[in-house]
Amino acid sequence: MQFGRWVPAFTFLTGLLLWGAALGGSFLLLLNLSLGVQNWLWVSAPIAWIALWGWRRHRHRRYTRADTTVTARGGRSAMAVEEKVGVVTGYYAKLGVAGIHLTDGPLQVGDRIRVHGHSTDFTQDVESMQVEHVPIQRAEQGAEVAVKVRERVRRNDQILLVRE
C-alpha cells in the first residue's frame, strides 16, 4: 500500500487542527483574561502557536525511508541511490541559474539531481549546463558550471546525483 497519496490530506488536517487550537486557545485566553478568570489557558495558547510554527516550518520537508520502498503489489524494491557531486557556489535569480562547483564527481545533461540544503530540497533533471556561457553536455570533477534550476537555491546547498 502506498501512503504518498494521503500525505497532503494528513498535512492539511494537521494544519487545520493546529490553526484551530492556536486561534481558539488565544480567543479563550483573551476572553478569560478580560473576565478576570485564571486557568490553564495561559500556557496552552502559546504551546499551540509554537506547534503551529513548527508545523509550518517543516511541512515541506520530504521524509522517506532510507533503503526501501513498498511497491503497489506489496513487494519491496531498492530506492534511488544519491551520491554527492558538488556544492552550490551562487544563485542568479533573474536567470534562475545555480553556479555549481563539482567537488566529487562528473555531471552531464540528462542526469537527475537533488538539491539539498538547510531550507532547500527538490529534485530535477539537468536540462541546461554551461561553462563560461558556452553550452556543454558533460562536466568533469573540479569544474565550475552553471545549471538552470527550477527553484531558488542557496550557497553551500549540496548537489546529489540520483541513480535508480
Descriptive notes:
The chain is of the alpha+beta class and 164 residues long. A hairpin with a 2-residue loop joins strand 8 (129-131) and strand 9. The protein folds into two domains: 4-70, no CATH class; 80-163, Elongation Factor Tu (Ef-tu), domain 3. Helix 1 packs antiparallel against helix 2 (41-58). It contains two helices and twelve strands; from the N terminus they run H-H-E-E-E-E-E-E-E-E-E-E-E-E.
Summarize the structure.
The chain is an alpha+beta fold and 164 residues long. It has 2 helices and 12 strands; from the N terminus they run H-H-E-E-E-E-E-E-E-E-E-E-E-E.
* N-to-C SSE string, H for helix and E for strand: HHEEEEEEEEEEEE
Please state the second-level CATH architecture of the largest domain.
Beta Barrel
As a percent range, the share of helical residues equals 25-40%
Morphology: elongated
Instruction: Supply the number of helical segments.
Output: 2
Q: At the third CATH level, what is the topology name of the largest domain?
A: Elongation Factor Tu (Ef-tu), domain 3
Radius of gyration: 23 Å
What is the typical, i.e. mean, pLDDT?
79
- At the fourth level of CATH, the homologous superfamily of the largest domain is Translation factors
Which strand order spans the largest sheet, edge to edge or round the barrel?
7-6-12-3-4-11-8-9
- The CATH class of the largest domain turns out to be Mainly Beta
Report low-confidence residues grouped into runs of 5 or more. 62-76
Largest sheet: 8 strands, antiparallel
Number of strands: 12
Count of domains = 2
Class by helix and strand content?
alpha+beta
Distance between the termini: 21 Å
Strand residue content: 25-35%
